[in-house]
C-alpha cells in the first residue's frame, strides 16, 4: 500500500468526528456508529483515509471461540482467502487482521448504501418483474463466481438478509403487495407515466427547488425527484420555457461524472416543473469532506480529476455547456466507491460557437472576476473548480474572512486571493490552484489540466466500476 500524506484539520475542530480506533497501518478509522450486529460479529461505520471512501469495519469477538482455538485459526485463514475474491456481485474484502490485545478478528469490507435486500424490498414494494429479474441475475452471477472458484466456495447461509443493495445503481408488470400492508410506504405522487413515485421525505431544498426521495419502479432503484415551483417565474413566462427546454437538453448528457437526468415534465395543475435525477448516496462534497476530515492528498486528487472530467465533457459538448455555479455543495459523492459527480445544472448556460455568455449568476465566493463583467466563457468553471479544490484542502469556504458579498466582489475584482490560500502548505497544490485562478487568457482548459503533472500518480481510474481494484 502506498503511503500518502494526510490532509488533517485542526484537531480541536468541533465538527470533526473522532475515530474510536484505527487499523495497524493507520489507513482505516472506525467510528462509533453501529451498522449492524449478530451473535458473534458487530459491524461499524468506518473510513478509508487513503482512498477517501466509506467502508464497513467488521469485528468478531474471539472469546466466542475460546473453547476451540483451532477454529480461530481456521476462521482467520478463511477470511484471508476471501480477500482474494474480486467480483462485482460479491462484497469486497479489503483488509484483515487479528488484534491480540482486544482479542478480536477485524476485517474491512465494502459497504452497500441501502442495506440488505430484505429491508430494501420492504421499503420499496412497487417493483417491476424486470427489476426482480435483474437482482436475481446478479445474485446468480455472484454464486457462479464462488462455485467456479478454485477451491470451490459454498456460501451456506444465502438469504435476503445476506444480500446487500446499492439502491442508487440497480413499462413492466409491477409486483405489488397487498395495499393494506402497514409496512408499505405510500407514494405522495407519481409521474405521468406511473414509473416514478415520490415519497414525502425531503432530501434538500433551495430558493426555487425542493428535492425529494423517490423510486423508479421499473428499474428498482432509488432516485431524486426535483420539483421547481414555477410561480417563482410568474413574471417571466419565457424564462419558464427556456428552463424547460434547457433541462430537456441536459437529459441527453451521458457522463459518469455528471448527475444523470432521467425524466422531465411540467405539471400544469400543480404549476411545477419536475425532473428525476440520479441520487448520490453520501450527499454533497462539502458535507462529505466535513464528516471525513482525515483524507489523503491522493483521494483529493482523485476527486479533483473526476470533477475536471465532468467539466471537460460539458465544455466539449456541442453546444458548449457552462455550469456557472460549480462549488462543493453542487458536487455529489457516492461514498462507498469514491465516485464524485457534478450536479445542480439548473443555472447552466448553453452557448454557441462563440462560447460566450452574458448573465451574472453563481455563488459569489466561487465566481470568476470576468463573471461580474457579464462577458465570459467556460473558463469561469475552471476558476470555480480551483476554489473547490481550495475548500477541499483547507476545509474553509473561500473568502470566509469577508462578512458580506460586496467585500467579496471587491477582493475578487482587484485580484486579491482568499486568505485560505495561505493555509495551503504543499507548494505543488498551491501552484495548481493558482493556475486555475489565473486571468482568463492564462487559465488552462479542463482538458489541459487533466494532463497536468499534478495528476501523474493518479491512475486514469475506472476503478469506480470495480471498487475493489484500488485495495489490492
UniProtKB/TrEMBL annotation:
Residues 197-455 form the Protein kinase domain. InterPro entries: Kinase-like_dom_sf, Prot_kinase_dom, WNK_Ser-Thr_kinase. CDD domains: PKc (cd00180), STKc_WNK (cd13983). Keywords: ATP-binding, Kinase, Magnesium, Metal-binding, Nucleotide-binding, Serine/threonine-protein kinase, Transferase. It comes from the Eukaryota. The active site is at residue 325. Residues 1-25 are annotated as: Disordered. Mg(2+) binds at residues 330, 344. SUPFAM superfamilies: Protein kinase-like (PK-like) (SSF56112). Its EC number is 2.7.11.1. One of its GO terms (molecular function) is ATP binding. ATP binds at residues 110-116. It catalyses: L-threonyl-[protein] + ATP = O-phospho-L-threonyl-[protein] + ADP + H(+); L-seryl-[protein] + ATP = O-phospho-L-seryl-[protein] + ADP + H(+). This is non-specific serine/threonine protein kinase. It comes from Vigna unguiculata (Cowpea).
Amino acid at each position: 500500500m502506498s503511503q500518502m500524506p494526510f490532509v488533517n484539520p485542526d484537531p480541536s475542530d468541533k465538527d470533526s468526528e473522532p475515530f474510536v480506533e484505527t487499523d495497524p497501518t493507520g489507513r482505516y478509522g472506525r467510528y462509533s456508529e453501529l451498522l449492524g450486529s449478530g451473535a458473534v460479529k458487530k459491524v461499524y461505520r468506518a473510513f478509508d483515509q487513503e482512498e477517501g471512501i466509506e467502508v464497513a469495519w467488521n469485528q468478531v469477538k474471539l472469546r466466542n471461540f475460546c473453547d476451540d482455538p483451532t477454529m480461530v485459526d481456521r476462521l482467520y485463514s478463511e477470511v484471508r482467502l476471501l480477500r482474494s475474491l474480486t467480483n462485482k456481485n460479491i462484497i469486497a474484502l479489503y483488509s484483515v487482521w487479528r488484534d491480540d490485545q482486544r482479542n478480536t478478528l477485524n476485517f474491512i469490507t465494502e459497504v452497500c448504501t441501502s442495506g440488505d435486500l430484505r429491508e430494501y424490498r420492504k421499503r420499496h414494494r412497487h417493483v417491476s418483474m424486470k427489476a426482480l429479474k435483474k437482482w436475481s441475475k446478479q445474485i446468480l452471477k455472484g454464486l457462479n463466481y464462488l462455485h467456479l472458484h478454485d477451491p470451490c466456495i459454498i456460501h451456506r447461509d444465502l438469504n435476503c438478509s445476506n444480500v446487500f443493495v446499492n439502491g442508487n445503481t440497480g413499462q413492466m408488470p409491477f409486483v405489488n403487495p397487498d395495499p393494506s400492508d402497514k409496512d408499505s410506504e405510500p407514494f405522495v405522487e407519481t409521474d405521468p407515466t406511473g414509473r416514478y413515485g415520490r415519497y414525502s421525505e425531503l432530501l434538500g431544498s433551495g430558493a426555487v427547488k425542493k428535492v425529494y426521495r423517490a423510486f423508479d419502479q421499473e428499474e428498482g432503484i432509488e432516485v431524486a425527484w426535483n420539483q421547481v415551483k414555477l410561480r417563482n417565474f410568474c413574471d417571466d413566462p419565457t424564462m419558464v420555457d427556456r428552463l424547460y427546454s434547457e433541462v430537456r437538453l441536459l437529459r441527453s448528457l451521458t457522463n459518469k461524472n455528471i448527475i444523470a437526468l432521467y425524466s422531465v415534465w411540467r405539471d400544469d395543475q400543480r404549476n411545477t416543473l419536475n425532473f428525476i435525477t440520479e441520487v448520490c448516496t453520501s450527499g454533497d462534497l462539502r458535507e462529505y469532506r466535513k464528516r471525513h476530515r482525515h483524507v489523503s492528498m491522493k483521494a483529493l486528487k482523485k476527486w479533483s480529476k473526476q470533477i475536471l472530467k465532468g467539466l471537460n465533457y460539458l465544455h466539449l459538448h456541442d453546444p458548449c455547456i457552462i455550469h456557472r455555479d460549480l462549488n462543493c455543495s453542487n458536487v455529489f459523492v457516492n461514498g462507498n466507491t469514491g465516485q464524485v459527480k457534478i450536479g445542480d445544472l439548473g443555472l447552466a448556460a448553453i452557448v454557441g460557437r462563440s462560447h460566450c455568455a452574458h448573465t451574472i449568476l453563481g455563488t459569489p465566493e466561487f465566481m470568476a472576476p470576468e463573471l461580474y463583467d457579464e462577458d465570459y466563457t467556460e473558463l469561469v468553471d475552471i476558476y470555480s473548480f480551483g476554489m473547490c479544490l481550495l475548500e477541499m484542502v483547507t476545509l474553509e469556504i473561500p473568502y470566509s474572512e469577508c462578512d458580506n458579498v460586496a467585500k467579496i466582489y471587491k477582493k475578487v475584482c482587484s485580484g486579491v486571493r482568499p486568505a485560505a490560500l495561505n493555509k495551503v502548505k504543499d507548494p505543488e497544490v498551491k501552484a495548481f490552484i493558482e493556475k486555475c485562478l489565473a486571468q482568463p487568457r492564462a487559465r488552462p482548459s479542463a482538458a489541459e489540466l487533466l494532463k497536468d503533472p499534478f495528476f501523474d500518480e493518479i491512475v486514469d481510474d475506472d476503478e469506480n466500476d470495480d471498487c475493489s481494484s484500488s485495495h489490492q
